[in-house]
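Lecture 7, part B: from sequences to assemblies.

Below are the input chains for today's worked example.
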Amino acid sequence: MLIEDTPDVRTTLIHRADSPGGQWWRSAVIYQVYPRSFADSGGDGIGDLPGITARLGHLSRLGVDAVWLSPFYTSPQHDAGYDVADYRQVDPLFGTLEDADALLARARTLGLRVLVDLVPNHTSDEHAWFRAALPAPAGSPERARYIFRDGRGPDGAEAPNNWRSVFGGPAWTRVADADGTPGQWYLHLFDVHQPDLNWENEEVRAEFEAILRFWLDRGVDGFRVDVAHGLVKDQGFEDWAGHAEMIAGDDAGEEGVGPAPMWDQPGVHDIYRRWHEVLASYDGDRALVAEAWADTDEAMARYIRPDEMHQAFNFDFLCTEWSAPALKDSITEGLAACDSVGAPTTWVLSNHDVVRATSRLGLPATGKGPNGIGADDPQPDAELGARRARAAALLMFALPGSAYIYQGEELGLPEHTALPGDVRQDPAFWRSGYTEKGRDGCRVPLPWEADAPAFGFSPTGASWLPQPTAWAGFALDAQKGVAGSSYELFRKALRLRREFDLGTGSLAWVDGTWGPEQGLLVFTNRQVIVAVNLSDGPIPLPDGLDVILASGELRGELGHQALPADTAVWAVLED
Ligand code: GLC
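Predicted structure of the full complex, as structure tokens:
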């Protein structure tokens, strides 16, 4: 009943294969390293660049094409490095510039590309520019690099408008003038320690182009661009009825809520056209990846028009509930939007900002999930989440385009769902008045060795966030060579993805007696047939299929096998 030549089966081609010889990023599998939590060589409990370099072999054996490093620059770490004080220097926590060079050299030897994170929406309040802005008078060139405004009301004691920080609380903070009297306010869409830059100012634009060149000259293959949809603000700075906490302005369009004045402004695209030119002046297909939480697929696709960035994270896929019709729509629309601008789609299930897919998919309400989980919150069904996450990974790796793996995803690592409040460090935790648990649960240091201190994360056993004792079972060395382990499943999936060229492949939906309405997703990519069972029970597999990869054990005898619920298979037609 699943195969194309069964009488009542329809196939609908929705995406054609790329022509051969395209750029590497069109089909790359990119692995996100979160430096604090990957591997600690120094023993202080915080991961570092030499630790990453020493473990790069793991990534090449896993079979990824590229690594994206979250920020390792000089930073007071108020938002885990997304508050940058010097864009051209490595924070001593993580190492030195020489360590960064050594990492790049080792990656090159292993054939891995390296993307680094660029944080252009805001700097740290310890950046030399912000330090110079504070004592400078209103209207000075030093203040013009940021968004300073007079307050409203008597004595300017009220914030310039009602915008809220993404992390909770107001988005404006008042500063004192040189003589100590209360002065202007500055905008920070995130933490108070992350003042927003003024992208209307040509000096800011020129500085970031110089920063791009600094890292391109050192040999990076490109950048993941943080909050790419936030740089340009509507210059009216009017009150807004929506919740800026919703980073995509998700409630824009609701009754009485106009478009978000701080997100996805048309002017932002000029910046990326200029950056495109900068990258194009270098050899080697360097790439820009947008973190743009846009409202629609079409809005997301505007960031990857041919003269802008090269990829954008497809967050719609990440946020889609675990349901066959919803996933089918998301995949179809994501591919159509990217095809309309000639860009590849990306597929992503986890990152350092969301509850890990293994836990998210075990919650009663799937989709984007809560902002963190604590011991007093409803706990995910671990077994269900793990089963679904394995199926979701096989779905993701079989789709044409580029796919992202968040560190630990290959180990099937769950979220830490019971971190005590006193160890949490995400500013969203305290800024929301402790109503949001925040993102620490997906940032816990990785387990490498079941029997070593801190599971091999650090030589001393130190770990900046505590690792659950159950993580011994998830350690890399407990999974290597173990048939059916998450690590071996990922490795095999990536090997077959390469062998069948699925990343540059095609996608045709196969619908018949069974289809998305019955909880079954079936498609072909080149000669591989992919089936994912999102229904509540097993579904018989037709004869004539040669299963080459399965996310879980199939039921029944060979030839009369059934695909259990929350399981995915890749198959080819028997000769
Ligand atoms: C992005 C990052 C997130 C950070 C925020 C502010 O969303 O992924 O971790 O907190 O930007 O820089």
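Note for the exam: Residues 128-187 form a domain with the Oligo-1,6-glucosidase; domain 2 fold (CATH 3.90.400.10). Keep this in mind when comparing with the next example.
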